[in-house]
Request: fold
Amino acid sequence: MTNSIQIRPLEPGDREAWAPLWREYLAFYGTERDQAVYDTSFGRYTDPAREDMKAWLAWDGGRAVGLVHVIVHAHGWQVAPITYLQDLYARPEARGTGVGRKLIETVYADADAHDRPSVYWTTQTGNATARRLYDRIGVATDFMKYSRS
Reply:
């Protein structure tokens, strides 16, 4: 793992570093969003009054090389809220350096610090690169995601 990688919460001044990363992430999944979504999401992730949406950036020196977004929500089967890791992205040149692991461990540490024992996420079944990491740091479930079309 690269020792020069630093993870820190997304801050209001990080917009220029964050936006290209999120665009790259969305492009990886073959989608893009209107500018209003970028504006709204960035505002939510950087609003200190919000506890339900959090984000961190991974920095290598002065360059942002990865991001993670989470949503904290209530759960009907337990008292404590849970953490949904919605987005995780590392620039291609940063993959294999431990960036993804450090971002996930940051989410785990945040969940532990706030008494949220459950952290979960989804990925495409064909995302072999990400799944190699996920198989080492998490436990695959046998649930499938369905959505309204």
Summary: The first helix runs from residue 15 to 28. The radius of gyration is 15 Å. The mean pLDDT is 94.
